[in-house]
Amino acid sequence: xxxxxxxxxxxxxxxxxxxxxxxxxxxxxxxxxxxxxxxxxxxxxxxxxxxxxxxxxxxxxxxxxxxxxxxxxxxxxxxxxxxxxxxxxxxxxxxxxxxxxxxxxxxxxxxxxxxxxxxxxxxxxxxxxxxxxxxxxxxxxxxxxxxxxxxxxxxxxxxxxxxxxxxxxxxxxxxxxxxxxxxxxxxxxxxxxxxxxxxxxxxxxxxxxxxxxxxxxxxxxxxxxxxxxxxxxxxxxxxxxxxxxxxxxxxxxxxxxxxxxxxxxxxxxxxxxxxxxxxxxxxxxxxxxxxxxxxxxxxxxxxxxxxxxxxxxxxxxxxxxxxxxxxxxxxxxxxxxxxxxxxxxxxxxxxxxxxxxxxxxxxxxxxxxxxxxxxxxxxxxxxxxxxxxxxxxxxxxxxxxxxxxxxx
Length: 408
Ligand SMILES: *Cc1c(COP(=O)(O)O)cnc(C)c1O
Prior knowledge:
Layout: H1 10-15, E1 27-31, E2 34-37, E3 42-45, H2 48-51, H3 60-70, H4 83-95, E4 100-104, H5 107-126, E5 132-136, H6 145-150, E6 167-170, H7 175-181, E7 186-191, E8 194-195, E9 201-202, H8 205-217, E10 221-225, H9 239-243, E11 249-252, E12 263-267, H10 269-272, H11 288-301, H12 304-328, E13 331-337, E14 340-345, H13 354-362, E15 365-366, E16 368-369, E17 374-377, H14 385-403
Helix pairs in contact: 3-11, 4-11, 12-14, 13-14
Bound molecules: pyridoxal-5'-phosphate.
């Protein structure tokens, strides 16, 4: 097989590390909320590249921002700064609680920076004893050794031990359990306002409010991981705004670049001081290309009309999913916020969420799972209403086929 032969899915098994199991088709082009594969077959995209392509594929304003910047300047390293990065940082500060911004390239790196900053800040101000990190079961914070340790899903750390010490997990949305473990030795608490990978579970307002109060009482920093639920996906620019609870540090990524890898860690001036010159960094963080695209993304997703549209489309999805459920009685709960939606399967279908990915694909629809029991949808924030309808019809056909294979 030479690298000039026609490229097929089989190549994956021949030349890639087997840590993924991609579907049988290979998409080659996307436009808005549609994708086309090598055979020219079309797919409606309810997956959004796992909550990343929040403005769909090949959005003209993003293509323009990327290609314009591509002709000017790609990379200068952090020995120099650049205009797109400064503009993006200024706008993130204007639009959020933040006073200081650090750029990286992925969600894991933004969380890694947040956790390292929290450790450094506590060490600077209070000494080495104040180093404990509290996180929640079912949470997901990335795949570096530190972030995977902080994440609350043991299956992702098995075999990678020894793990960094000083991390405790308590059940999500359980303020009483949390109150028993937080202490003056706690340096930070990290939480997803809406758990994405863990099953699309929204924090209760009382829970986040309670975390804020207890963190203040123990001088611990509150970190919100908005890698998945940020950047308009909740129907608010950031989910913390919906809850009215302000973190000390916020990590975001996924939707920020609309498909171009970029992430950001937002914080205050007083906390940021602990990352002094030379204490942390990354070669590509804040590169002109990524920042130019993110500036264009931010232009679009900070528009109140777009955000109101997310809420309206949430209702369309929910109504459609409830209709499907009246017919098939497949979901025990429909939940989520904005355009991050979870359909939890009933008892008899537990553990089988992945079968719906395949069935949907066969009907020309891309969906996600969030663990073995939940079908997850994270479409473009501007998916046209007609495509929501058409996609839901494809989902209905996929479910019908899966539930009664002989009838189809
Ligand atoms: C996806 C995700 C991450 C990890 O982001 P990467 O870009 O894959 O490193 C971290 N936290 C949350 C909440 C996520 O959804």
